[in-house]
Amino acid sequence: MAPRKSASKPNVSADELKTYYRDMLLIRRFEEKAGQLYGMGLIGGFCHLYIGQEAVVVGLEAAAEEGDRRITTYRDHGHMLACGMDPKGVMAELTGREDGYSRGKGGSMHMFSTEKRFYGGHGIVGANVPLGAGLAFADKYLENDRVTFTYFGDGAANQGQVYETFNMASLWSLPVVFVIENNQYAMGTSQKRSTSTPDIYTRGAAFGIPGEAVDGMDVLAVKAAGDKAVKHCRAGKGPYILEIKTYRYRGHSMSDPAKYRTREEVQKMREEKDAIEHVRELLISGGHASEEDLKAIDKEIKDVVNKSADFAKDSPEPAVEELWTDIVADVTPQNA
Amino acid sequence: MATEILMPALSPTMEEGTLAKWLVKEGDTVNAGDIMAEIETDKATMEFEAVDEGTIGKILVEDGTEGVKVNTPIAVLLEEGESADDIDTASSTPAPQAAEKSPEPEAKSAPAEAKAPAAPKADASPDWPEGTEMEKKTVREALNAAMAEEMRRDDTVFIMGEEVAEYEGAYKITQNLLDEFGAKRVIDTPITEHGFAGIGVGASWGGLRPIVEFMTWNFAMQAIDQIINSAAKTLYMSGGQMGSPIVFRGPNGAAARVGAQHSQDYAVWYAQVPGLRVVQPYSAACAKGLLKSAIRDPNPVIFLENEILYGKSFEVPKMDDFTIPFGKAKVWREGTDVTIVSFGIGMTYALEAAEKLAEDGIEAEVIDLRTLRPMDTDTVIASVMKTNRCVTVEEGWPVPSIGSYISSVLMQQAFDYLDAPVINCTGKDVPMPYAANLEKLALTSTKEVIDAVRQVTYR
To answer: Tens digits of per-residue pLDDT, A187-200?
Structure first.
C-alpha cells in the first residue's frame, strides 16, 4: 500500500487502534462470509455488503456515547456489528432463522435492536432520514441529551424528504448527525451522472446546517469528524452533516454485475486506500503491534465469524405460527 | 483439507447458470477477493470471487458449460501444503439447507376467515353505563376534548401538523390546545407531509406518542410510504421489538365543491394494510371514545374524520374518562327486514333511509362499523342471520369497497341466510367533479339506499 498521511495525526492509543482494526476486520470478514452463504443459497433476496466502507461506522461509533441512537438504510450489517449487536443474531437473520434479530421476519434489510439503540435497517431510499430526525426529536422532547446518527447514501441525498427533514431538523434544532456515506455510486449510477453539484455536504447550507467532507477511508479522520459533529449536536446547536467519502468494493447488491465501473478502479481503491490496511500499517509502523499480534486478531475474528455462520445454519426456520405474530401489539413495546 | 468450490447463486432468482469463462487455471494461487470466473446468470454476466486463499487443484466444470445447477462443485481449492492427490478427500462445504425442499409449511389461516360458519359473537354491550348524564356536543368539540384529555393524562402525547397551533387548526379541531399545552406539545409544521409524517414515526420509536394531523387525508398521499412502510410494518419486521404508537388523523372524503384532488375517501386504502388500526367514526361520542383509544393504542392508528360531520351535534356522555374499544360495531337502530351497514358520513344516508323506510313499514337494522380494521363482522353476520338481507353504504369508490369485502364475508359465513344479493351503495367510479349537480350524483345518496333496500326486500 502506498504511504498515506492521516488527516488527523495519529494521536491515538495502541488500544484504540487495535479496537478499530478488530472492529473493521470483523465487518469485512462477516460480509465475506455473508457473500459466501449467499452463493450457497443460504441467504436469499437482497443482500447489500458493506465491504470497503468499514471505517465509516467504526469511526463514528468511536465518537458515540452510551444512549446515542443510530438508524440506516439497507446496507446495514456493518452498522449493526459496529454498535455491538451479536454477529450470530445478525447472521441468523440473514439466513431467515428463528434466532435472528427479527426472528427471521426482517432479513438483511430489516433488523433492529432497541437494546443497542439501533433502529433499522430500512429498505426505502431516503425514508430513514425523517425517521432518524424523529428519534432525535424524541430525545430533545424528553431532554435526554442524546444524539442520533442518521446514515444514508449519496443516492438518498437526492430524495425530497431528505430536504424536508433538513428544514425541520434545523428549524427545531434537533440533535441529529446526518451521515452521508458517499460511496460514489447510487446502485449503478455514478454521482457525476446523478448529482448536480459534487459536494453534498454543502446542501445543508440552504437550511443553516454546517457540514464537512471527510476521508472515509481513514478511520481516525472519521472519528475526529464524528467527535466534532456530536459536540455540536450535544451543545444544542442543531443538526450537523458529515459527507463521508467512501467506496464499496462489491456490487450494489449480490446480483450486481458492476459494469458501471472498471475492475481497475476497484482494484486501485483496494490497493491504495483500504481502511483496514491503513490501520494495520499504523499499528506496525508505530510499534504498537507485531505481525503475530495481528495474525492472532485475524484468527480470533475468523473464529467469531465462522461461529456466527454455523449458528445461522443450525438455527431452525421460524415456527409457522410466527406468520401471525407481531402484526399488532397488545401492549406498547419498549421502544425508547 | 481440500475444499470444493460450488456453483454460486448470484441473484435472488438464480437456479442455474453458464460457467462462461475461467480466469484462473489449475495450479494458480488465489486470495480472497480474486476473481476466479465469469458466470452468466439469468440477468447478467457476473464475476465470481474467491472467498478463501489457496491453490486451484482441479477445475471440474469447463468453460462454456451451460445449465450448471447452483451448488454443483465446479473446482477444488487446495490449502497450503496440499497437493492434487488430496482431491479425492475434498469436502464440499455442507449442502445448504435451502436446497432441500422443506415441507410446505401449513400456516393456519387468518383468524375468523374461510371457516365454516361459526356462531357470530356480536358484542352488544353499551358503550357507557346506562343512565349516564348526556350533553350535546359537536364532533369538533368531541375530538378536541379527546386530545386535551389525553394530553393531560400523558406528557408524551403531542400534536404536530400544519396550522395546528397558532391558527388552532384549519378546521378548528385543535382549538385552545396551544394555550393549554404550549409550543413544545402543539407544533406547527411546515407544509411537508412526507417529512413530518416520518419524523412523527421516528418520535414514536423514541418513546413519544405523536398525534399527526393531516389538514386533509388527501395530502397524506405525500406521506403514505412513511405510514405504511415505516409505521405499519416495523413491529412485524422487528420481530415484535419496535412498535409505532402514533395517531394519524384529519378530515377524509368529500367535503363540498372542492374538486377531485380534495375529495377522496381513503377508508379502503388503509383498511387493507396489516399493522394499522383504521377508525372512521360517525357520531361525536364515538369520535371521542375512539380517539382516546387511538391515542392510547400501541399501534399506528388511521383516524378518518369528515369535514361535514365536524359541526354536527350528538349526545355525548358526561364522564371524566370513557373510551370505546376498536373492533366493536354499534347498532344504531334495530330492525327485522334488512341490515344496512355503514360507517362515517355514510351513516347519515343509512339512518335517513331507515327513517323513511319505516314510514312504509320496512324496519331496517342500521349498523355503524366505526372501526374498519379490526372490523366487527360478527355483528353484521348476526344481524343478517335475522334480516336475511344486506345493503352497504359508503362514499368511497366501488372497486373494491368496504361493502364488497362485507359481501364476501357474508357469502362465506352467512350464505344460507341470504335471501337476496347484497347491494353496495358507493361513490361513483369517477374522480370527484366540481359542478354542484355532478358532485351530488358522484356521491351515494339516501335515495340510492332506499332503492337498494326495496330491491333486496322485493318491496
So the answer is: 999 999 999 988 99
Into how many domains does chain A fold?
Answer: 1
Mutate to test the interface with A, among B91, B162, B193, B205 (most CBs of A within 10 A): B205
Please compute the mean of the pLDDT values over residues A126-147 and round it to a whole number.
97
CATH code of the domain in which A60 resides: 3.40.50.970
Residue A6 maps to a domain: no
DSSP string, B33-100: T-EEEEEE-SS-EEEEE-SS-EEEEEE-S-TTEEEEETT-EEEEEEPTT--GGGGGG-EEPPPPGGGS
Q: What is the pLDDT of residue A1?
A: 40
The CATH 3.40.50.920 domain(s) of chain B lie at 330-457
Cα A1 off chain centre by: 25
Q: How far is Cα A123 from Cα A174, in angstroms, rounded to an integer? A: 24
Per the prediction, chain B carries an average pLDDT of 92
Each residue of B31-56: pLDDT tens digit? 877 888 988 887 778 888 887 788 99
CATH class belonging to B3-90: mainly beta
User: Which residue intervals of chain B bear CATH 3.40.50.970?
Assistant: 134-317
pLDDT tens for residues A152-188?
A: 999 999 999 999 999 999 999 999 999 999 999 999 9
Position B22 scores a pLDDT of 92
Q: Is A32 on the interface with B (CB under 8 A)?
A: yes
pLDDT at B108: 53
Domain that residue A191 falls in: 14-247+256-309
Element (H, E) at B330: strand B330-333
Strand B277-279 to B371-373 pairing: antiparallel
**Of A137, A167, A255, which is closest to B10 when you measure between CB atoms?**
A255
B334 is an active site residue: no
CB A136 within 8 A of CB A176: yes
Q: Best interface-test mutation with A: which of B31, B225, B241 has the largest number of A CBs within 10 A? A: B241
DSSP A242: E
Note whether B87 and B21 are within 8 A (CB). Answer: no
3-state DSSP assignment of residue B17: strand
Residue B262 known to be catalytic: yes
* Cell matching residue A305: 465469524
Determine, for residues A324 and B108 on separate chains, whether the beta-carbon distance falls below 8 Å: yes
Task: Please give the mean pLDDT across all residues of chain A.
Answer: 94
Alpha carbons A197 and B357: distance in angstroms, whole number: 68
Residue B237 has its nearest CB partner, among A46, A105, A130, at A105
Chain mean position to CA A292: 29
Classify residue B130 by its DSSP letter: T
Instruction: Give residue A11's pLDDT.
Output: 73
The answer as to whether A328 is a domain residue is no
Name residue, grid cell 385552545: B176
In a domain, residue A317? The reply is no
Thinking of the domain B134-317, which architecture would CATH place it in?
3-Layer(aba) Sandwich (3.40)
* B86-99: average pLDDT: 50
CB contact under 8 A, B238 and A259: no
**Is it the case that residue B185 has pLDDT exceeding 70?**
yes
pLDDT at A334 (0 to 100):
57
Q: Is residue A75 one of the residues assigned to a domain?
A: yes
Q: A55: exposed, middle or buried (C-beta count within 10 Å: 0-12, 13-18, 19+)?
A: buried
Q: What are phi and psi of B362, to 5 degrees?
A: -100, 115
pLDDT band at B96 (very low <50, low <70, confident <90, very high): very low
In tens, the pLDDT along B303-341 reads 999 999 999 999 999 999 999 999 999 999 999 999 999
- Kindly write down the DSSP assignment for every residue of B303-344, as one continuous string: EEE-HHHHT-EEEEE--S-----TT--EEEE--SSEEEEE-T
Is the CB of residue A198 less than 8 Å away from at least one CB of chain B?
Answer: no
Q: Is the dihedral of CA A56, A61, A63, A69 positive or negative?
A: positive
The grid cell for B324 is 370505546
Fold of B330-457: Rossmann fold (3.40.50)
